[in-house]
């Protein structure tokens, strides 16, 4: 696969080395030639000094034959413009752009550009580390930062024979799996929950707090 990486910072250089190690043909673009030092002497791809959204630079990098384009410079505007140019003008099939502003990320996802919303992902990684063990957001699904999150909640010690089906609430939460004694399984009909289980749910992002409160009540058989 011919891949163009716009930006040779920490992310771009790591990605470039990983892709070349897998046998891909990689070209890295950066306006600062000193940035290529991050690639090391054994980098087998190609480097190109230039502006990442400049058409002459992109064509010199082989954008007309590229199967993938990744924009990971330090600026949202450079990432978005170069990614849209690669996709809209040159028809590159796989285009990914790092976006620091999660609100903008959602907009560009709708334009067909896969985005990585760095600020939201970093914040959620920190929240996962700070959350109580066994109760945390494990990931997200959807454009930008993700409209649906994957939530893990432990079953309280006092629960015996809780109704697993009650954890699915139309439009807000779906029980995806249950972990018990080190094994994780998909839910079964008439399944019951016991103390020590962990339930894994897909939850609408804007309903996480409400769903968490409701699920604790449902697990414990409250009304």
Number of strands: 13
Name the strands of the widest sheet in spatial order: 3-2-1-4-5-6
Low-confidence segments: none
CATH superfamily heading of the largest domain: NAD(P)-binding Rossmann-like Domain
Which percent range fits the helix content?
A: 25-40%
Number of helices: 6
As for the number of domains, it is 2
Q: Roughly how many Å apart are the termini?
A: 56 Å
Task: Please tell me about this protein's structure.
The protein is built from six helices and 13 strands. By secondary structure, it is α/β, with parallel strands linked by helices. It folds into two domains: 117 residues, NAD(P)-binding Rossmann-like Domain (Rossmann fold); 89 residues, 2-Layer Sandwich (Alpha-Beta Plaits). Strand 10 and strand 11 form a beta hairpin. The relative contact order is 0.10. The mean pLDDT is 83.
Briefly say what this structure is.
This protein folds into two domains: 2-118, Rossmann fold; 131-219, Regulator of K+ conductance, C-terminal domain (Alpha-Beta Plaits, 2-Layer Sandwich).
Features:
single chain; 223 residues; alpha/beta; Rossmann fold; Alpha-Beta Plaits; six-stranded parallel sheet; five-stranded antiparallel sheet; 6 helices; 30% strand
Task: Give me the secondary-structure topology.
Layout: E1 2-6, H1 10-21, E2 25-30, E3 46-49, H2 55-60, E4 68-71, H3 76-89, E5 94-99, H4 102-110, E6 114-117, H5 118-130, E7 136-141, E8 148-154, E9 160-163, E10 173-180, E11 183-185, E12 192-194, E13 198-204, H6 208-219
Parallel strand pairs: 1-2, 1-4, 2-3, 4-5, 5-6
Antiparallel strand pairs: 7-8, 8-13, 9-12, 10-11, 10-13
